[in-house]
Design a protein that fits this description.
- There is one protein chain.
- This protein is mainly alpha-helical.
- Helices cover 65% and strands 0% of the residues.
- Helix 3 packs across helix 4.
- The structure holds zinc ion.
- Zinc ion (ZN) binds next to helix 1 and helix 2.
């Protein structure tokens, strides 16, 4: 596990907690893991928008916050929505 990915991983685990109130199912059959991934991405994106004064495109955001490839399309979408 790469320590640089800890913020995303912690936010992902928080996503599970928000969905199941302490129970942390990691099965992806019901979309639990993709829910947790989306939660984590939005959580970090919210932090970026609120506290990070650096203007980044979505690729810069992914690099800086070590966002996993599996949610890069969603990150691109968030930046497109922000631009509107
Ligand atoms: Zn998970």
């Amino acid at each position: 596990m790469d320590p640089k990915e800890f913020p995303f991983i912690i936010a992902h685990e928080l996503g599970h907690t928000m969905l199941y109130r302490g129970n942390l199912p990691h099965d992806n059959k019901n979309g639990n893991d993709s829910f947790a991934d989306r939660y984590a991405l939005r959580f970090i994106f919210e932090y970026y928008q609120t506290y990070d004064k650096e203007t980044l495109d979505y690729k810069g955001f992914i690099t800086k916050y070590h966002i996993p490839d599996r949610v890069s399309k969603l990150a691109e979408h968030l930046f497109k929505m922000k631009a509107k």
